[in-house]
Amino acid sequence: MNKKIICFLVGTLLMFTFSVSATNVNIKNPSKTLTTNNNDEAELPTWHVDDSWTYLIEQKMIFTPSEDMIFYLTIIEVKFTVVHVGCDSYTLEFEGKAMVKFDHDSHVINLKKCLIRGTEEVERGTLGVKEVNMEIIPTVEPGLKAEINMSFEPAFTFIEFPLFVGKEWSYPSSTVTVDIHLPDDTSYTYHVVIPGGSASCTSSETISVKAGTYDAFKVEVHNGKLTIFYAPVVSNIVLLNGKIPAVTPSVPDQWFDFISIYCELLDTTYSVPGAPVKPNTPSGPTTGETGEIYTYCSISIDLEGDKIQYGWDWDGDYSIDEWTSFYNSGETVCMSHSWNEEGNYSVRVKAKDENGIESIWSDPLMVTISTGGNQPPNPPVIAGETHGKTGEEYDYTFTISDPDGDHLIALEIDFGDGNVIEPTPPASGWSSGSTVTVTHKWTTKGSYIIKARVKDEKGIWSEYGTLSVTMPRTRTVLFFENILKYYFPQLIWLLRFNDNTG
Fold it and tell me: Are 147 and 134 in contact (CB under 8 A)?
């Protein structure tokens, strides 16, 4: 019964992850700007093999009657890729990194590093989720692999097509059968009902996320408790935030309130049919001075042979600051620019063909601009133990300096395990040549790269300094085993889960 608890929680959260991540839209006569005119209609998209979308997904489950009992699931950079297009369904493969946390009173259980991977089958006619098969593998002990298989009847989706501003609809409930297989050869089966409800497309808005800035349809579910934004140019969700309607487990009492979810698009390879391919990352100088002119180049291809013009974003806000004239497909195009203020800039470019269809943004080129004579700080020099034991604390020193002798006002340290810190500097900042000591411990075995960078008083960041560290396995950190064998028996009375189900 103890193992069934954790599997039910993880399985239920993952069920919603994949039920909301598969619904996508396309738009008739795609263009950059949407309007509230009902003639702008979202149709079922056409996916192709190798189309992909990468997301950050954060979920939280809150239980009753004790509201201080919370289960968290964070999936970092999960990438969905179309691998097969069938007559009735699409098949997607997915892979990402997950973190799990259980919090009740003073009891906090963390499983910080897991690999999650598998396949998802999506119904072509509705883009509803039909089936999900996955593996959860703790990196602490890869042999402790759990398998979770979910089937949806009927296929589940929040969206009804065609989609347009002002439309209202109801979506049906779906019964989900969840099969779980654990490393010790035990298996469980249970059923969850996703209740039906109402939804509406209320507006079109411009949304900025990590992947870029997009014009998107806004869909509200259950009177605005869940908000979903769809960008036709990427044919997928770009942002999702809110509370998913309560699930009804096949037990006498409903014992949790809701699942909250946040989902943000980080990257995509999808292009609107007919759009130019994603341009290359701009090439050009990565450091410079204010007032000086620098030249940056990129290239794209239009598969239909249309001429292409390039839109440049010089300040990293995902807005086009300058368009070129039209060039032949496959021709390298260069553009010159100067900055008036020092700082760190992300330079991106996108392509647009003669029909007005735009590509997605290129990857950014990071450019550091300083005032004439001001140079960026030197990368921090990191020193400390490079081979240690998990669970033990180690001191690391960061020697920071600036070639101009400027004071240093910020130090950012990434220990490679999800912990990023910024030590508090003195009131006037650190003087050039200072050494900062920080203590850290790793809780799971593995190889890590410590990265650090420093910012001078003029606001310019250095390049990263690095140090590689290896933490071998110790028996005290077989975390997954500890959860299954020790912690969860103490939580059974809190969860009130009926062992007669499944």
Answer: yes
> String of b and e for 432-445 (b: at least 16 CB within 10 Å)?
bebebebebebebb
Tell which wins on pLDDT, 176 or 336: 336
* Confidence at residue 105, expressed as pLDDT on a 0 to 100 scale: 60
Task: Scan for tokens 């609809």, then name that residue.
Answer: 169
Residue 196 φ/ψ, nearest 5 degrees? -70, 170
Is residue 367 within 8 Å of 315, Cβ to Cβ? no
- Rounded to 5 degrees, φ, ψ at 87 are -65, -40
pLDDT at 3 over 60: no
The whole-angstrom separation of Cα 350 and Cα 310 is 6
Q: Is the pTM of this model over 0.85?
A: no
Task: Indicate left, alpha or beta for 77 from its phi (over 0: left) and psi (-120 to 50: alpha).
Answer: left
Q: How far apart are CA 320 and CA 32, in angstroms?
A: 12
pLDDT digits (tens, 9 = 90+) for 325-373: 999 999 999 999 999 988 889 999 999 999 988 888 898 999 988 887 7
Residue 178 vs residues 12, 116, 190, 440, 488: alpha-carbon distances, Å: 8, 16, 5, 40, 20
Cβ neighbour number for residue 472 with a 10 Å cutoff: 11
8-state DSSP, 424 = P
**The Cα angle at residue 162 between residues 150 and 355, in degrees rounded to 5:** 115
pLDDT at 39 over 50: no
